[in-house]
């Protein structure tokens, strides 16, 4: 699957591609300029083994309606920092992680923070693992996912010890951050996370056959993915209980010439933010027979629909879904099928 998508992106002909991929497996890896490079997987694995996982601290900032723009730093294990904050265990908690090259001021965190606090009373916690994610070396940043997840899990367990209910906890992550929250949910010890929203989970150096190393079904009571740059920067196959593919999961309207796929990759958090706010038009997808329907770009309406994202999440929405969007915000088109 990955090989065929690599060929599509690079525009290689089948005649040239066959000998290229005959003996080796190749993957697309973004470089420091977020441009994609074709690399031999054997070489990548060798480099990953050489790269030392960084020693870094994750910073957690709490936002509530009492402090919607200035985050309060919470330190896992420090009960005083929590007691002095606006954290309210009676309110639902949303922990949001940025991806590669991001920080505590990333658009993913800001968009989710604003959307949830517009909607109601929440504890929004931004995960700033920029010390591990800001490396110009993608391989090193990918290697830091587990350490970031360990620290986020430590925070979640700490909050549970101070009244937070795991049934009120959602984890949200974009790109590499989607795997951070997936691995976080695997590592928590006080309960099981209610919902994970994986926003175009990163594909480079993550593999379908290794769910224990990435976001996967079963990490939470419910896992939903929004896959907007499938097969390039984002994961191609469905990896959630429900997987939505806006505009077939590839080029997104309004992105223009998006060769590297970054615009489409970023649309996932923009779509989720809009689904959380109360809007007259919803992101309604039609259920497809399988992922092959997405590949074939043929998913006729057969009476079953599902709403993408939203607050609260709907655990009954399961399967693969297609929906179109507008090219500008508001992106939702509501009921588009006949």
Set down the secondary structure blueprint.
Elements: H1 2-10, H2 14-21, E1 26-30, E2 36-40, H3 41-50, E3 59-64, E4 67-74, H4 79-83, E5 93-97, H5 107-119, E6 123-128, H6 130-133, H7 138-143, H8 145-161, E7 169-174, H9 176-187, E8 195-199, E9 222-226, E10 242-246, H10 262-276, E11 284-288, H11 291-296, E12 305-307, E13 319-323
Parallel strand pairs: 5-6, 5-7, 7-8, 8-9, 9-10, 10-13
Antiparallel strand pairs: 1-2, 3-4, 3-6, 11-12, 11-13
Helix pairs in contact: 5-10, 8-9
Explain what you see:
This protein has helices at 2-10, 14-21, 41-50, 79-83, 107-119, 130-133, 138-143, 145-161, 176-187, 262-276, 291-296, and strands at residues 26-30, 36-40, 59-64, 67-74, 93-97, 123-128, 169-174, 195-199, 222-226, 242-246, 284-288, 305-307, 319-323. By secondary structure, the chain is α/β, with parallel strands linked by helices. It has a single domain (54-323), classed as Alpha/Beta hydrolase fold, catalytic domain (Rossmann fold), CATH 3.40.50. The radius of gyration is 19 Å and the shape is globular. The chain starts with a helix and ends in a 15-residue tail after the last strand. Mean pLDDT is 89; it is low at 1-22. Belongs to the AB hydrolase superfamily. Lipase family. GO terms for molecular function: lipase activity; serine hydrolase activity. One of its GO terms (biological process) is lipid catabolic process.
């Amino acid at each position: 699957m990955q090989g065929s998508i690599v060929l599509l992106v690079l525009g290689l002909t089948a005649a040239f591609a066959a000998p290229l991929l005959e003996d080796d497996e190749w993957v697309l890896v973004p470089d420091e300029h977020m441009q994609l490079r074709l690399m031999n997987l054997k070489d990548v694995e060798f480099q990953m083994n050489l790269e030392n996982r960084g020693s870094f601290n994750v910073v957690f900032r709490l936002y509530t309606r009492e402090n919607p723009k200035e985050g309060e730093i919470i330190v896992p294990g420090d009960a005083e920092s929590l007691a002095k904050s606006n954290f309210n265990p009676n309110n639902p908690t949303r922990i949001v992680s940025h991806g590669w090259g991001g920080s505590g001021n990333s658009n993913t965190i800001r968009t989710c923070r604003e959307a949830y606090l517009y909607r109601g009373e929440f504890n929004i916690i931004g995960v700033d693992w920029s010390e591990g994610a800001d490396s110009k070396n993608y391989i090193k940043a990918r290697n830091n996912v587990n350490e970031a997840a360990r620290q986020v899990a430590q925070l979640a367990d700490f909050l549970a010890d101070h009244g937070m209910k795991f049934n009120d906890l959602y984890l949200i992550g974009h790109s590499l951050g989607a795997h951070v929250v997936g691995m976080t949910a695997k590592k928590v010890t006080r309960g099981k996370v209610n919902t994970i929203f994986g926003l175009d989970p990163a594909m480079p150096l993550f593999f379908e056959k290794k769910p224990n190393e990435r976001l996967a079904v079963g990490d939470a009571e419910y896992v939903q993915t929004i896959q907007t740059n499938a097969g390039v920067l984002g994961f191609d196959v469905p990896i959630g209980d429900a997987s939505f593919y806006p505009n077939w999961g590839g080029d997104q309207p309004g992105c223009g010439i998006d060769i590297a796929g970054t615009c489409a990759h970023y649309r996932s958090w923009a779509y989720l933010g809009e689904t959380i706010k109360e809007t007259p038009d919803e992101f309604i997808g039609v259920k497809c027979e399988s992922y092959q329907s997405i590949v074939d770009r043929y998913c006729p309406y057969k009476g079953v629909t599902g709403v993408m994202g939203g607050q609260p999440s709907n655990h009954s929405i399961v399967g693969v879904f297609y929906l179109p969007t507008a090219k500008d915000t508001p992106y939702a088109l509501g009921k588009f099928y006949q």
